[in-house]
Amino acid sequence: MNTPSFTSWFQTETLWGLSLVSLALALAAALGAYLAMSLLLGVAVRRARRLAEAQGGSHRTAGVVYELLAGTSRLLVFVAAVLVGVGMLDLPGRWAARVGQLWFLALALQVGLWGTRAVALGIARYRMHHGLAAAGDAAPFSASATLLLAMLSNLGVNITAFVASLGVGGIAVALAVQSILGDLFASLAIAVDKPFDAGDFIVVGGVAGTVQRIGLKTTRIRSLGGEQVVMSNTDLLKQTINNYRYLQERRIVFQFRVPYGTTAEQAEAVPQAVRRIIEAEGQARFDRAHLQGFVENGLQYEVVYIVLDPAYNVYMDLQQRINLSLMRELATLGVDFAVPARTVQLAAPAGGPPPGGFLRVQQPATA
User: Fold this and answer.
1) Which range among 88-102, 168-182, 210-224, 351-365 shows the weakest confidence by mean pLDDT?
2) Which of 40, 185, 278, 303 has CB 3.0 to 4.6 Å from 286, enough for a Cys bridge?
3) Which helix (H) or strand (E) is 206 found in, with range?
């Protein structure tokens, strides 16, 4: 006899204007929705993790999906389940509108979390690929700020004046951090355009050395003297950069002179001797050797050859051997190197005898 009375009481009793039956159905629906969503999310996360392990890395597609799903907020899943249950209730129009807004907020927050996580993963992958140092990022903050403004607008808040004030403040901040932003964009330009990478030997301005690290604001170079040179990325990109990373061979041009008085036969034999010297070197390829012209101090020759090894020490060793061999060949031909000389004519003193001749002064070469 108690059962029918309890059933009748359960069906007729109300709480906050809602029957206990509808409240019980809403609670059951919320519980079922939470269990179903948690189960589906768990299955999806496990499957994505297995695919990521099979692909061998968190930067593959399955790895990114796993990271995003693993970042799903359990609290927002619970809120969504509660909203499913609330949707089973017969609410007044004003409360129904509020439930719709809560749905938007929950979905927007979850999408924002996924988006922020995706941006963070993308930036981490970009840095790892380009060897950039880790630092704080403005992209997740910008996405969060945009999401917050959308949520406030959905709740009926007038954000026009707020956005306008943010714009004015943003201009002031941008002017204050102009140099920092310039270096930041310069670092992105270095990462995208890749004029050099860490480990490359570069010459920029008066600095020659190996790139150690490319940061968001500065690039650090270990110079030939051993010290570390820190250069602003903006100033670095404003200059011409010589990168020796892709250097495979060196084109060398050098000149020397022999004195006037060298016979035509001797002058003709000099380029042939130079050719024999360079062709005898296994790490060099002869290009040309010519009597270039008649200059102030003698006959000038120009020699061009290619060093087949990019190492600077190899080039210097080779040039030294060529110079020594050239000295021996010229000695064999009876030809000397030209020494800069100047002829000075002495004027006769007043009332004295005329000068006896000319004074020839030899000066050491300066080049």
Assistant:
1) 351-365
2) 278
3) none
303, two tokens: 């020699």
Residue 287 pLDDT more than 70? yes
One-letter identity of residue 352? G
**Dihedral sign of CA atoms 148, 154, 159, 163 in order:** positive
SS (H, E, C) 126-182: HHHHHCECCCCCCHHHHHHHHHHHHHHHHCCCCCHHHHHHHHHHHHHHHHHCHHHHH
Beta strands in the chain (DSSP E): 14-15, 18-19, 201-204, 207-214, 218-223, 228-232, 241-243, 250-258, 284-295, 298-307, 341-345, 358-362
Q: Are 291 and 273 in contact (CB under 8 A)?
A: no
- 228 by Cβ neighbours in 10 Å (0-12 / 13-18 / 19+) ranks as exposed
Which residues are paired to 294 by β-bridges? Answer: 299
Which amino acid is located at 227 in the chain? E
